[in-house]
């Protein structure tokens, strides 16, 4: 089963997203903000995909989470969700392989399908 790190500060969205991702075959590790996600990434032996919101309380945002995930697991697919895409595109352009930007609002079933397709081509470290 693929391990997905879900980073979302809104608890209801996180709860529903977790259910959708689990129904899609993922083992979900949750973080409620970027700071917690970075701590979790430091403790995980692998992660198959990262799905993160951008704007969250705390010191680190979703782009910081994506950067940290890639420093630990260089080829891990990253999906970044935001309602402020214009401001984020420039920060994501340095990622190779590319981070996938998903604009809010999004449908969770489509996000889960995207996560499945991206993680299917990824080999765990």
Describe the structure.
- It comes from Teichococcus wenyumeiae.
- InterPro entries: Bact_response_regulator, CheY-like_superfamily, Sig_transdc_resp-reg_receiver.
- It holds the Pfam family Response_reg.
- This is Response regulator.
- α3 links the parallel β3 and β4.
- It contains 5 helices and 5 strands; from the N terminus they run βαβαβαβαβα.
- Helix content is 44%, strand content 21%.
- α1 packs across α5 and α2 runs parallel beside α3.
- It is an alpha/beta fold and 125 residues long.
- The chain has one domain: Rossmann fold, CATH 3.40.50.
Q: From N to C, what is the helix and strand string? A: EHEHEHEHEH
CATH class: Alpha Beta
Oligomer: single chain
Radius of gyration: 13 Å
Could you say what the CATH architecture is? Answer: 3-Layer(aba) Sandwich
Structural category: alpha/beta
What name is given to the CATH topology? Answer: Rossmann fold
What's the CATH H-level homologous superfamily? Response regulator
